[in-house]
């Protein structure tokens, strides 16, 4: 595992301390800085060039969504994981649509936090399976049917195997896990993912996973 540098951004000192303690229990993860608000997170990301920023949505001075957009402009190589609660599900989807590398709940198990950081640093998206299902299932609006029809229309351009891979993205599986499920190498799955993103015109695998959910895969 490559050494991973992380910036933690949360306005609650106790939350930051808990996250730091969990992450530094992994000898391959280093917390290089902590931010108490979004503006500070952006500045620290510029000066420390971390691999991953753990970004809370609700923060003073500059909120997480604004900070995410700013990081996309000024530090595009940094992967951003969104920290959230169930009550912020609409903001989560907005964050993912803006290029976030995934999200996890603040009460996630320590091992899940470490897996999320490792996945983001490796270029994968991390979708906490339970949280993803909760977010998508709870977003029941008058446009749900319309979204489903649009998603199925877009997914129709994929081959059968590509649809299988996309369905596993919707479950939050990594390339390695998807490969084991489909009896493919991780490199082959990565090739399929790249092809799927291009065909669906998705910026990242998180957007593709949500599209898979809308399409009912």
Compose a concise summary of this entry.
The protein is an alpha/beta fold and 217 residues long. 56% of the residues lie in helices and 14% in strands.
Helix-strand layout with pairing:
Layout: E1 4-9, H1 13-23, E2 29-35, H2 38-48, E3 52-56, H3 64-74, E4 79-84, H4 89-97, E5 102-105, H5 110-121, E6 126-127, H6 129-138, H7 144-155, H8 160-170, H9 175-182, H10 186-200, H11 205-215
Parallel strand pairs: 1-2, 1-3, 3-4, 4-5, 5-6
Helix pairs in contact: 2-3, 4-6, 7-11, 8-10, 8-11, 9-10
The proportion of strand residues reads 5-15%
CATH homologous superfamily title of the largest domain: Response regulator
Mean pLDDT: 84
- Low-pLDDT sequence parts: none
Total beta-strand segments: 6
Rg (CA only): 17 Å
Protein model, in words:
This protein starts with a strand and ends with a helix. Helices cover 56% and strands 14% of the residues. α9 packs across α10. The protein has 2 domains: 4-137, Rossmann fold (3-Layer(aba) Sandwich), CATH 3.40.50.2300; 142-215, Arc Repressor Mutant, subunit A (Orthogonal Bundle). The protein has helices at residues 13-23, 38-48, 64-74, 89-97, 110-121, 129-138, 144-155, 160-170, 175-182, 186-200, 205-215, and strands spanning 4-9, 29-35, 52-56, 79-84, 102-105, 126-127. With 217 residues, the protein is of the alpha/beta class. A 6-stranded parallel sheet has the order 2-1-3-4-5-6, with helices on both faces.
């Amino acid at each position: 595992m490559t050494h991973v540098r992380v910036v933690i951004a949360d306005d609650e000192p106790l939350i930051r301390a808990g996250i730091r303690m969990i992450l530094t229990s992994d000898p391959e993860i280093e917390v290089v800085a902590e931010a108490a608000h979004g503006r500070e997170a952006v500045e620290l990301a510029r000066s420390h060039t971390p691999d991953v920023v753990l970004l809370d949505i609700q923060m003073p001075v500059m909120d997480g969504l604004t900070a995410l957009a700013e990081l996309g402009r000024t530090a595009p190589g940094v992967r951003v994981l969104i920290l959230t609660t169930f009550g912020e599900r609409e903001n989560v989807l907005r964050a993912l649509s803006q290029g976030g590398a995934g999200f996890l709940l603040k009460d996630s198990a320590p091992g899940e936090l470490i897996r999320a950081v490792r996945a983001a640093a490796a270029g994968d998206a991390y979708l906490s399976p339970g949280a993803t299902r909760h977010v998508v299932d709870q977003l029941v609006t008058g446009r749900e049917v319309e979204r489903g029809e649009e998603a199925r229309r877009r997914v129709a351009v994929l081959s059968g195997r590509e649809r299988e891979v996309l369905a596993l993205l919707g479950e939050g599986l990594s390339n390695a896990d998807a490969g084991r499920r489909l009896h493919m190498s991780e490199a082959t799955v990565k090739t399929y993912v790249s092809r799927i993103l291009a065909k669906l015109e998705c910026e990242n695998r998180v957007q593709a996973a949500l599209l898979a959910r809308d399409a009912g895969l």
